[in-house]
């Protein structure tokens, strides 16, 4: 689940430090998922899952770089009412 996150998030982010923001976002999202599991009792909190999910985001970022020239360019949003 986090490899696609690592590939798609840089595509949607603007500006510098896309990779760091994506990796940090993957880490935070993983901590949120694990915390929900801890508090609801659905599943089991596991630090290994946080590390593996963050690694998945890193792998996704690494796959994004060579594939990014194949993706359409991200343009600014156009207001549909104009």
Quick description:
This protein is mainly alpha-helical and 82 residues long. It contains three helices and no strands. It has one domain (2-69).
Structure description:
- This protein is mainly alpha-helical and about 80 residues long.
- Helix content is about 65%, strand content about 0%.
- The chain has helices at about 1-10, 20-40, 45-65.
- α1 (about 1-10) crosses α2 (about 20-40) and α1 crosses α3.
- The model has no long low-confidence stretch (mean pLDDT about 85).
Distance between the terminal alpha carbons, to the nearest Å?
Answer: 37 Å
What's the SSE pattern?
HHH
Kindly report the oligomeric state of this protein.
single chain
Strand content: under 5%
Shape: elongated
Task: Give the total of beta strands.
Answer: 0
Low-pLDDT runs of 5+ residues are none
Task: Indicate the percent of residues in helices.
Answer: 55-70%
Radius of gyration from the alpha-carbon trace, in angstroms: 15 Å
Helices and strands: which structural class? mainly alpha
Task: Count structural domains.
Answer: 1
The helix count comes to 3
Major sheet attributes: none
Q: Residue-averaged pLDDT, rounded? A: 85
Write a concise keyword list for the protein shown above.
82 residues; 67% helix
Topology, pairings included?
Elements: H1 2-12, H2 18-40, H3 47-67
